[in-house]
UniProtKB/TrEMBL annotation:
Superkingdom of the organism of origin: Bacteria
Record lineage: Bacteria, Bacillati, Actinomycetota, Actinomycetes, Mycobacteriales
Gene3D superfamilies: HAD superfamily/HAD-like, SG protein - dephosphorylation function
This protein's name: 1-acyl-sn-glycerol-3-phosphate acyltransferase
Keyword Lipid biosynthesis: yes
GO cellular-component term (any): membrane
């Protein structure tokens, strides 16, 4: 089964909250094992003693083939949390999500969760991990229900002991069945997703079991039982080819800049330089990295210029993707910190991008004044209305700056929706991976009759348009 088939199965299947979708966490929603991030955080902070380190390594070497093995494993893992308050652990979870775990979310899992939510299904994360490892991700994905291994808490402080049975193997299956009964879930029509062989019983609790990124044991079980197998794009350590391609792409980017500068000098024309940089920067680095860009409705990128082109921002690669879409005659508005960015700072400064200090409202307004003049002179502008890269593929709140600029300059807003950019350049990563980035250019939006009184509602409509487009990608 490919992702599109899994999504179509959800879209065309029964709707409503009596249908549930149960997702395992580690290896299914996020790449890898979230517990390692918590352990590494404590290790780097010097909070792991020799005895704990030895016990953890010994447990890892032994593995856990039986439920008794797993209970011994978690007993050691969670013992170190004794004495911490719940709020302390939630805060650690939020911090690690922002710095690391968000970059490990499978985009395909996000799409599946969104499809189930759009169908009105009850979405549940069921994991042997603790709630503190899961909650930040659940919040970001909008998942209300979380089943987890319970830890003993007294007066808001953890004792370091598991409070009952861990949600591993039979423990997870039992917890899911109890949830289904308590919430009147139609088990025959509901879904389960997991990657581990220990979750065969959990997968079998519902009528639509879907082994996802299965290990060898689960793949064998799935083959025997005729379960459809779903695989996501691997997110492991990049290989030599990816590193070499990345270095070539970065070299191609800077080469594009200097080639454009040279052409501008030969023609004694700055516009020739800027347009050459934009055209080359949107082609050469992507080709060298093995990244294709599939553009839908490309005619909308040329229908009305100048315009304010807005895009959803998830990857450092987004400016290059926008260059591929627009090709020439544009500049950008970005945060002040990008001026010193080692990858794009030089390019942005040369093409005359406006750098905005988001912490200084007066400076930000002053910086945007010349942008209006730029538009009136015939050059388009690209802006990410979210203001910064979102941690997940979810659309963040749109700020009003881009819309103010379009209204003052008397030009349309053109929404550009980007999908999959996070797959070819993960958050917190500098290594590019080959693949395809999907882009759709939506119809230009006339803002000539917009008023300041209704601007908030208008911006919210455009923001919602992005969510709907990502949820139902144009055929």
């Amino acid at each position: 089964m490919i992702l599109e088939e899994a999504l179509e199965r959800v879209r065309t299947g029964p709707k409503g909250p009596e249908i549930a979708a149960f997702f395992d966490f580690d290896g299914t929603i996020v790449h890898g094992f979230s517990g390692l991030h918590f352990f590494r955080d404590r290790l780097l902070a010097g909070k792991v003693g020799a005895a704990e380190l030895a016990a953890t390594m010994l447990n890892g070497l032994r593995g856990h083939d039986t439920e008794a093995d797993f209970e011994r494993f978690v007993a050691v893992a969670f013992k170190a949390w004794g004495g911490h308050t719940e709020e302390e652990l939630y805060e650690i979870g939020r911090r690690l999500f922002a710095s690391t775990i968000a970059g490990h979310i499978y985009p395909e899992a996000w799409q599946l969760i969104r499809a189930h939510q759009a169908a009105g299904h009850t979405v549940v994360i069921a994991s042997s991990a603790s709630r503190y490892q899961i909650q930040a991700t659940a919040d970001a994905l909008g998942v209300e229900h979380v089943l987890f291994s319970p830890l003993e808490v007294r007066d808001g402080v953890l004792t370091g002991r598991v409070d009952g049975k861990s949600l591993w193997r039979s423990g997870k299956a039992q917890a899911v069945l109890a949830f289904a009964e308590a919430n009147s879930i139609d088990r025959e029509q509901s879904y389960t997703y997991s990657n581990g062989g220990e979750d065969a019983d959990f997968l079998a609790t519902m009528g639509n079991p879907t082994p996802t990124n299965p290990d060898r044991n689960l793949e064998r079980t799935a083959t025997e039982l005729g379960w459809p197998i779903l695989r996501f794009k691997p997110r492991g350590t990049p290989g030599t080819k990816e590193v070499v391609r990345t270095l070539a792409a970065y070299g191609g980017l800077f080469g594009s800049v200097w080639t454009g500068v040279g052409l501008g000098l030969l023609n004694r024309n700055k516009k020739v330089a800027l347009d050459s940089i934009a055209t080359l920067a949107g082609e050469v680095p992507l080709a060298l990295a093995g990244i294709d860009v599939d553009i839908r409705n490309e005619a909308n990128a040329w229908a009305q210029r100048p315009a304010v082109f807005i895009f959803n921002h998830q990857s450092q690669l987004d400016p290059v993707i926008m260059a591929r879409v627009l090709r020439h005659s544009f500049t950008g508005v970005t945060k002040k910190e990008m001026a010193s960015d080692p990858l794009f700072g030089l390019v942005l400064r040369f093409v005359g991008a406006a750098f905005v200090d988001r912490a200084n409202t007066e400076q930000a307004k002053a910086a945007l004044g010349p942008v209006v003049d730029t538009l009136r002179e015939g050059t388009s502008v690209i802006i990410a209305p979210e203001g910064t890269r979102s941690l997940t593929p979810e659309i963040g709140r749109f700020k009003k700056g881009a819309f103010h600029i379009a209204m003052q300059a008397g030009v349309p807003i053109v929404p550009v929706v980007i999908r999959n950019a996070g797959e070819v350049l993960w958050k917190h990563s500098t290594v590019l991976r080959p693949g395809t980035v999907d882009v759709v250019v939506l119809d230009p939006i006339d803002v000539s009759d917009w008023t300041l009184d209704e601007l908030g509602a208008r911006v919210a409509e455009v923001e919602d348009l992005y969510r709907k487009t990502l949820a139902n990608w144009p055929a």
